[in-house]
Specification:
Distance between the termini: 20 Å
CATH superfamily of the largest domain: P-loop containing nucleotide triphosphate hydrolases
CATH topology of the largest domain: Rossmann fold
Largest sheet: 5 strands, parallel
Shape: elongated
Radius of gyration: 29 Å
Strand content: 5-15%
């Protein structure tokens, strides 16, 4: 699956057709029959796990326009595709003005369905990733911007929200690459210190004899490196730079003994000795620290002060590794793919299900950072417009697929169907069209036409453009005849590839 679609329509036949189409194209459908329940679901955090909304405009009680108005008031920016029973351009324009990303006319053609959904998800992923990057740079990233569909990450976010409402020190524990700094930024922007300075220091990247001066300042004339790696005169120290805001100490277990002692005083007395000053300077900072090591083990080894540990770990929050939050891999991949495609000027239509399954099954020892780099590399090296197994050779090799190109299935069940010429060749069953009925009389023309169109739909697997071309009629004529001859349900039968016992 490449996303969860919420289908809202009061017509059970339409819901059945759209649900089957969604499954056919690799999406997870959820269906509702009224607008009130849709608004209630989408008003939940992260829109209740829904990635896009397919919404009928004409419904009793709360119609589609009213649903969009309610969602707009709640600040929901979910992509919405509206369903309209008429070809009125005014209806479509009105829906787009009210926030719809696209529209589909009933009966919905499979090609139109897949294009609308794919484009809506791609645009939403790109907009969301751009928004997250901007908020991260401006210090306004909140917990709502974090990907947290897995239960493990939801639990961590719930703790983070509680910590943001307090002023106590927080210790983030987790493996390298799980996103501790991003989590710390969300914690900062979700509390009362939002808008104040957020100063991050990577304690492990600075030599032990220099970290003390970097944090607390130094005498005039001393030279210490900034986080960027260069060297410059620095006097006030990062602690005073964070005055009124948050000081984030990554890899806090790497602090030198001298720096640990001064940090302990900061936490106890809320003051530091200014460089070259005669008296201490009061400091109002919130300390959020992070570690990928077990600080208790460092305490036992005598490498970390026990009293400092208990000062830092007043509110510990454990961030789960990516292998424990597999439900987050798909939305993360979608966001990374959208961002890197835009940055690299590539037009990518998605990722093949086989490749997505490969990424979901991998253990990811480097966590989110490794996943991000893997998608970046795949976008740069991709020769086509869809990421497949061959774009992830290292991951495929680790999963026992040394030749990723050969590992691709002959026909991939990707989000776009291949043209009929590329479908696997098979002997089509012979179909004799009888012009007479069992009594020997000529059949009605409508019955013959219905049987002919039904056979064409099956033979060309729902490819409406090909069906219309082979029948020698226009697409609009074909859609009209589907409605007149009550063949809309055929689209549902073609889309639903599940066994009968599963479809029931």
């Amino acid at each position: 699956m490449t996303g969860t679609l919420l289908i809202v329509d009061d017509d059970p036949a339409q819901r059945q057709v759209l649900e089957a189409m969604a499954r056919r194209f690799g999406y997870e459908p959820r269906v509702l029959d009224n607008g009130e329940e849709a608004v209630a679901l989408l008003s939940q955090p992260a829109c209740g796990g829904v990635d896009a909304l397919i919404l009928d405009l004409v419904m009793p009680d709360l119609d589609g326009f009213a649903v969009m108005e309610r969602l707009r008031k709640t600040g929901t920016d979910l992509p919405i595709i509206v369903l309209t029973g008429s070809a009125s351009i005014d209806t479509a324009i009105s829906a787009m003005k009210n926030g719809a990303a696209d529209f589909m006319e009933k009966p919905v053609a499979p090609e139109r369905f897949q294009v609308c959904v794919r484009n809506a998800l791609k645009s939403a992923a790109l907009a969301g990733e751009v928004r997250r990057v901007h908020r991260r740079k401006t210090g306004t990233l909140t917990f709502d911007d974090l990907t947290a569909q897995s239960e493990a990450m939801k639990a961590a976010v719930a703790l983070g929200r509680r910590a943001a409402a307090a002023h106590i020190p927080v210790l983030l524990e987790g493996e390298t690459g799980v996103g501790k700094e991003v989590f710390a930024r969300a914690l900062h922007a979700s509390g009362e210190r939002a808008g104040k300075p957020f100063v991050a220091v990577s304690c492990g990247a600075v030599p032990g004899h220099l970290i003390e001066g970097l944090l607390f300042g130094h005498e005039r004339g001393a030279i210490v490196p900034f986080d960027g790696g260069g060297a410059a005169e620095h006097q006030t120290g990062k602690v005073l730079e964070a005055q009124g805001g948050t000081l984030f100490l990554d890899e806090v277990g790497s602090l030198s003994p001298q720096a640990q002692a001064r940090l302990l005083r900061l936490l106890q007395d809320h003051e530091v000795d200014a460089a070259g000053g005669r008296k201490p300077v009061p400091v109002d900072v919130r300390v959020v620290s992070a570690t990928n090591a077990n600080l208790i083990d460092l305490v036992k080894q005598g490498r970390f002060r026990e009293d400092l540990y208990y000062r830092l770990a007043v509110f510990p929050v454990g961030l789960p590794p990516l292998r424990s939050r597999r439900a987050d891999i798909r939305p993360l991949v979608r966001a990374f793919l959208a961002r890197f495609s835009a940055e690299e000027g590539r037009v990518m239509r998605g990722i093949a299900p086989a490749a997505l399954s490969l990424l979901e099954d991998y253990a990811w020892p480097g966590n989110v950072r490794q996943l991000e780099n893997a998608v970046f590399r795949a976008v740069v090296l991709a020769t086509g417009d869809e990421l497949g197994l061959s774009e992830f050779p290292q991951i495929a090799a680790a999963r026992g697929l040394p030749d990723a190109a050969q590992a691709e299935p002959p026909v991939r069940a990707s989000v776009l169907l291949p043209p009929p010429a590329m479908l696997p060749q098979r002997a089509a069953p012979f179909h004799a069209l009888s012009l007479t009925n069992g009594a020997g009389h000529v059949r009605m023309l409508a019955d013959i036409e219905r049987e002919t169109i039904r056979h064409a739909l099956t033979h060309y697997e729902g490819q409406m453009t090909e069906v219309a071309r082979r029948l020698g009629i226009g697409r609009s004529t074909l859609y009209r005849k589907l409605k007149e001859l009550d063949l809309t349900v055929e689209l549902c039968d073609l889309a639903d590839t599940r066994p009968p016992e599963e479809a029931a």
